[in-house]
Design brief:
mainly alpha, 13 helices, globular
Length: about 325
């Protein structure tokens, strides 16, 4: 096998990435245009490039909506990449951060900070600690199998259930105002985003992408058996540790911005594998699909029943749950990658 066969993109993948990029751009423009105040698409573009003469449009776009859309794009891309990495390491399409409990643990730790349990660490930092803790526990309980096999998934499901129960207990023991402050962390919402958390997410996502570029060939070899991957020059242990670390980092940072937005990490990689050529890990396509999915879901949550807003986590759950059932019930006839 040629050395570059596992790294060079093919024409189908390039076309798929281009189409997904256009979808992201369209979703962003439409999301910036729609809301309580409707703004023409042309005016949105002029506001973004700084040539609009309408001060109201400039204020609504640049001050109110743009930061929310950027937060959605970044968190969606981060969750999708985390899911793609986790699925690759476990060689299982169901092994996403949400399903194995990382989201719930990150949420529990963040809520612990919000409701005042004596922990004086910022919710975003606590979310990252929770994600790392859940992964370490799942990895330890899986034993020799590591991230591979159903034992890792079952361990994660148990950890996620415990973390969810702990979150509900904490919310039931605090004043109603504190519980309301923590509510966005429990359902997933871009309405309670923190500017500092978004900046940290952007930096973490950029750094993670650089690392993934460096290990993409090794990740692609994980689709083969361990002996074949080793014969191709892959250092399996190092690749799995780095990949798992990136998945935890991206999940924790994303949850620190939007809370536990379910099933993005499952849907986006699945869509990416569908449109890209099999045989490679579709990291770019997954990130673009995740960004588009998050922006579109948030747009639907803001506009379907306006002025009532539905948190983005509820929208993704409604859309993604039937698809999850379809994956579970459908016989799989293709490889993970």
């Amino acid at each position: 096998m040629h050395r570059h066969a596992l790294t060079m993109p093919d024409s189908r993948t390039l076309v798929a990435n281009a189409v997904l990029l256009l979808l992201v751009a369209a979703a962003v423009i439409i999301s910036l245009s729609m809301g309580t105040v409707q703004i023409a698409l042309a005016e949105v573009i002029r506001a973004l490039i700084g040539t609009t003469e309408d001060p109201m449009a400039a204020f609504v776009i640049n001050e109110l909506r743009l930061s929310r859309v950027v937060a959605g794009m970044l968190s969606g891309a981060a969750l999708a990449l985390a899911g793609c990495l986790m699925q690759t390491l476990a060689r299982n399409r169901l092994a996403t951060p949400g399903i194995i409990g990382i989201d719930n643990a990150a949420t529990a730790f963040a809520v612990a900070s919000v409701v005042g349990t004596g922990i004086a660490i910022a919710p975003s930092a606590m979310a990252l600690v929770g994600a790392a803790t859940a992964t370490a526990l799942a990895f330890g309980l899986a034993g020799a199998n590591g991230t591979r096999g159903y034992r890792f998934i079952v361990a994660g499901l148990g950890i996620g259930a415990i973390a969810g129960a702990v979150t509900q207990v904490m919310l039931s023991q605090v004043a109603i105002d504190d519980a309301n402050a923590a509510y966005p962390w429990t359902v997933g919402s871009l309405n309670a985003r923190s500017g500092a958390s978004v900046q940290v997410l952007a930096l973490g996502l950029a750094a993670s992408c650089l690392v993934m570029v460096a290990i993409v060939r090794a990740l692609n070899t994980l689709q083969f058996s361990d002996p074949v991957a080793i014969a191709l020059g892959t250092r399996l242990r190092r690749t799995r540790v780095v990949g798992l670390g990136l998945s935890v980092l991206l999940t924790g940072l994303a949850v620190s911005v939007c809370g536990p937005v379910g099933l993005v990490a499952l849907l986006a990689p699945e869509l990416a594998r569908t449109v890209c050529r099999p045989g490679r890990i579709p990291l770019t396509a997954a990130a673009l699909a995740g960004a588009a999915f998050m922006v579109i879901a948030d747009l639907l949550g803001r506009t379907l029943f306006s002025p009532l807003e539905i948190p983005v986590g509820i929208i993704t759950a409604i859309v993604g749950s039937p698809y999850l059932l379809w994956i579970l019930l459908r016989p799989s006839t293709r490889s993970l990658t």
